Amino acid sequence: MTIYFKNAYIKNAYSVVGRNEYDISIKGDLHINDYYLSKKSFEQGESELLIKSISGLLSKCKKKETDIDVALSGDLQNQILASTLAYRNFNIPFLGLYSACATFCEGLIIGSNLLENKGINNIIISTSANNLASEKQFRFPIEYGAIRKYVNTFTATAAVSTLLTKEKTEIKIESATIGTVVDIGYNDANNFGAVMALSASKTISEHLKETNRSSEYYDIILTGDLGVYGVEILKELLRNEYKINATNIVDAGSILLKDTSVVAGGSGPVCLPLILFNKILKEKYKKILLVATGALHSKTSVNLKESIPNISHVVSLEVLWYI
User: pTM of the predicted model, to two decimals?
Assistant: First the structure.
């Protein structure tokens, strides 16, 4: 289902990045070297990342808590713990989200719809991840020393908060396509790219069909965290299943950690916004299609021997220039 928006704009964003992300030139607005952030656990450390991101955004945009009508946030922890621990420090109405690594685009879609309400003018969309918290929840704790596969991605450590507003800015949220949950019967949590490529191809195809556009309409199609192998599967699916030869697809996770020992690139809900705000928007693209991808499994589903459902949401941006 594709929705068009009249009054949804991105005002600004604030990124807090981890050591690995900073070292490969994603400088963000603030970087940290400590995964704990002086807390007792990685989970609490991630919450601190998010607090710094929210506070930084308010300061950057010269906004007070009372200027924000609602905040939408989600992360990878059970019951979105990082988001709830962070937002208890702010007197802002709160809605929690979860679409795994597709959460950022889900937030943009819901936030843009809320802006159609006359009483809502400013919304914060935020998401976060801590590598050491996510890896032990979805795969193995790092200290186990488990052997990683070539197709493994590496959860990025960061927090990104974005201000959506009715005020006209240089970045307009033009339309969005809400994805459906799909499942190819795959259950390898080490290969998220292969799992999520199908939902990405399906939602991209639906978006182009419903908007009567070709892939060339967009200057760039930015996927979330398929990794170097998953993005190639996506391109193949688009060619073979939908007859779409998209030569302008770039994967944020592949960019984020492409020059490290992590073979397949980065993953997590922060990959897409990190690359969008710290790289893509600075390269003067005018029409950008964001394709967030999420693997919707959990410890429970893995123990039940369930396959991994996945989803992809698409958001179309029109950019005059980067603020």
Answer: 0.94
